[in-house]
Amino acid sequence: MLPAELTDEKIMLKVKEGNLSELSELFDRYHLKLFNFFWRLTMDRSVSEDLTQTLFYRIMKYRHAFQAEQGNFKSWMYRMARNIHLDYCQEQAKRPDRYKTMHEQDPAAPPSEYKDQEEHLVRLDKALGKLDPEQLEIIVLSRFQGLKYDEISQIKDISVSAIKVRMHRAIKELREHYFNTL
């Protein structure tokens, strides 16, 4: 059986059994999505890279805690990613120099040729930045990571209906912030 035919859960069970080289397949499948997840939450490239690396280290370290019968690998992984991000936020809250401007976060960002699109993205980023962390996380998991509500409910350990209600409220709040930045 080729590695591409294996499910995430089967690969993780191999990793759990001690075949750590199989983790590279999961890394190939998810590292970019996870980087984007962290980037959307932190808006900092180097931090996102570090958090992604930390996540895969923890997957390897806590591989024995994975239990396929209790949920799928993706939910387990994003639950761990969420915890890593929360740890990062708690660390940052202790630092007085944590506030950066967008230019300080990525000074090498190329100038945009599409002014309207850039303005839209700036407004969207400002609106996303005004959401509380809970709302931002749900929007990032659903809209930017493409996770289904049942996967998010497993990650957050709440019902699907509660996720739907929170998503509705988050989108409503995002819309208000977006249109108030005109």
Q: How many helix segments?
A: 9
Distance between the termini: 55 Å
Domain count, please report it: 2
Main beta sheet strand tally, sense and closure: none
- What percentage of residues falls in helices of 4 or more residues? 55-70%
Please state the second-level CATH architecture of the largest domain.
Orthogonal Bundle
- Which regions contain 5 or more consecutive residues with pLDDT less than 50? 98-105
Would you state the CATH class of the largest domain? Mainly Alpha
The CATH superfamily title of the largest domain: RNA polymerase sigma factor, region 2, helix turn helix motif
Mean pLDDT: 83
Structural class call reads mainly alpha
CATH topology of the largest domain: Rna Polymerase Sigma Factor, Chain: A
Strand % is under 5%
**SSE series:** HHHHHHHHH
Shape: globular
Describe, in plain words, how this protein is organized in 3D.
This protein has 2 domains: 1-104, RNA polymerase sigma factor, region 2, helix turn helix motif (Rna Polymerase Sigma Factor, Chain: A, Orthogonal Bundle); 115-182, Winged helix-like DNA-binding domain superfamily/Winged helix DNA-binding domain (Arc Repressor Mutant, subunit A, Orthogonal Bundle). It has 9 helices and no strands. The model is unreliable at 98-105 (pLDDT under 50). It has 182 residues and is an all-alpha fold.
Output the keywords.
single chain, 70% helix, 182 residues, globular, mainly alpha
